[in-house]
Structure of Toxin HigB-2:
Amino acid sequence: MEATFIELPAFERHRKEVLDDEEFRLLQQILLTSPHAGCVIPGTGGLRKMRFSHAQRHKGKRGGIRVIYHCWMPGHQIWLFALYEKGMQDDLTIAQRHLLRAALEREYLNRTTHDTQSFH
């Protein structure tokens, strides 16, 4: 699969603190190979959360990084919304899920020519 990666501000702001360039390339390769690898986060309109191993700190997937993303297949794009270390936060709050859903809806409207999209 070929896709363009779109780093949204929250992701871009924290990426260099959390991932070096090699790890970021590995993350991109994983998402290109398995774009639906992450679990769908309820209440976000279809955003996914993927566990990613953090090699710098010798943590496996369970203690590593969480990546919030969306695959927009018709546009061949993967939108990277956020990433955080497991130790920084466990599960997303309901308020955070609502904010992410609103951000997904905004991105969809800004990046597509379609008038409607079904959000879960």
Observations:
- The chain has a mean pLDDT of 85.
- The helical segments are 9-18, 21-33, 94-111.
- The domain at 4-111 is CATH 3.30.2310.20 (YaeB-like fold).
- DSSP finds three helices and five strands in the chain.
